[in-house]
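Whiteboard transcription, Tuesday session. T.W. wrote the C-alpha cells on the left side:
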C-alpha cells in the first residue's frame, strides 16, 4: 500500500513541476500570448510558478528520503 501512496505523491509532484515549468516558459518566452496583464499580474504569476516549482522539488526530495527509509 505504501508503494502506491508514494507513487501517487511522486506523480503529483512531477505533474506540478511540469505545470510550473510550462508556466515559466509561457511567461518568459511567449508572454505575448498571455493577454492584457499588468506588471503586478506578471510578477505574481512568476512568483506562483516558482513557488510551485520549489514546492514540487522539495516534495520529490522528501519522497525519495521516505522511499529509502522504507526500502521501496
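and on the right, the sequence the group agreed on:
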Amino acid at each position: 500500500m505504501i508503494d502506491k501512496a508514494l507513487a501517487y505523491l511522486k506523480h503529483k509532484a512531477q505533474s506540478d513541476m511540469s505545470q510550473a515549468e510550462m508556466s515559466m516558459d509561457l511567461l518568459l518566452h511567449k508572454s505575448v500570448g498571455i493577454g492584457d496583464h499588468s506588471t503586478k499580474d506578471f510578477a505574481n504569476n512568476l512568483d506562483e510558478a516558482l513557488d510551485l516549482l520549489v514546492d514540487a522539488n522539495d516534495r520529490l526530495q522528501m519522497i525519495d528520503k521516505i522511499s529509502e527509509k522504507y526500502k521501496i
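Someone added at the bottom: The CA atoms of residues 36 and 42 lie 10 Å apart.
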